Amino acid sequence: MARYLSASLEGTGGQIKESPEDFLVEEIPLYLPCGEGEHLYVEVEKTGLTTFDLIQKVAGALKIRSRDIGYAGLKDARATTRQRLSLQRVTPAQVESLQLPGIRVLSCAWHRNKLRLGHLAGNRFTIRIRAVKAGALEKAEDILHVLKTVGVPNRFGQQRYGVLGNSHLIGRALLRQDYELASRLIIGDPQSITQERWREAAERFGQGDLNGTLAALPGRFRDERNLVTALLKGGDVREAVFTMPRNRLRLYLSAYQSSLFDRLVDMRLDTLDTLWAGDYACKHDNGACFIVEDPAKEQPRADSLEISPSAPLYGYKVSLARGQAGILEEGLLAKEKLSLQDFRLSEGLGMEGERRPLRVPLGEYQVGLEDQDLRLSFSLPRGSYATSVLAEVMKSEEDPPATTSARPTEY
User: Fold this and answer.
1) 268, 309 contact by CB (below 8 A)
2) Beta strands 23-29 and 80-88: pairing type?
3) Per residue in 344-367, pLDDT tens?
């Protein structure tokens, strides 16, 4: 059952229609282009495309390499999004003349460096919630006031766990070197699959019918087909799992890191704005962390949302808190039967880990009614998810739809 920071306040209920028109996501740039240099910063609006789709289409139209296109963040296909790309060896006139379905060029300006992942301050979201309860406007205003005062729980949420909701379980199996389980989870649980051919393939895989699995798997499931083919050729299950692309295996591991972090958020939810002795406090302006020796001295900075307690994205280099916070962090690892050194994987899959704030500031927000629907607008720092705000506001029985792709290859 979901837990809420604003549990004492009734939610608005409602639904978010899974269409790009109900979501507008705008990047908040970390810096603006200076007007000179060899990199053309292009602001685009896209609809119905992932960021990788966008890059491939732009690269193809301009006859440049996809890897030479810079971007600051990944955005979902199920939204209308405005984001920046950086391009080399093209002119504004070439870009402005592009006629690509679902893509609109908004502006072009020169800058000295290529855009890199993370080169953004945050994102602004404008979201329509349909079929809300009576009194939804007042309910939303009260909840958003709490989030503005206390902060937003910095959960990753379900969008991190893939289309079947099991990416984190695959990551755990990889860390435990349980490759039999990992392979079954990668092919999928038939009970969670609605697509007929995929479900049949998963059923056959569970029965040990590898030829039947391969025959049933849709052609687009190239990675899964490679795994099954490796088993058919007599390879052991570890070798078969490691036919998967490294970036996909890393995303499974990252999903597991995220799930552990979300559990720590829930453990601290009632004291999310309170520093404990031994906490690693995170500075929101630059992400730097420091040990809290005197909670009473530092608490005023937490009250103003200058700093917040943090929790680990577990990895072999991450530092764990001390005191009561450390007991929680070490206890969760012990419950999972893992140590930090278990994250020191070979094959380029090692996870160093880092600290992440347990809450984030809610930027300026607006809320109003439009044709009986609730319309929210708010901003969050980069790396945070709108679903954390929507869950608090709506308190629906089902989680609100992800604002980033549910596929395991993008988040």
Assistant:
1) yes
2) parallel
3) 998 899 999 999 999 999 999 999
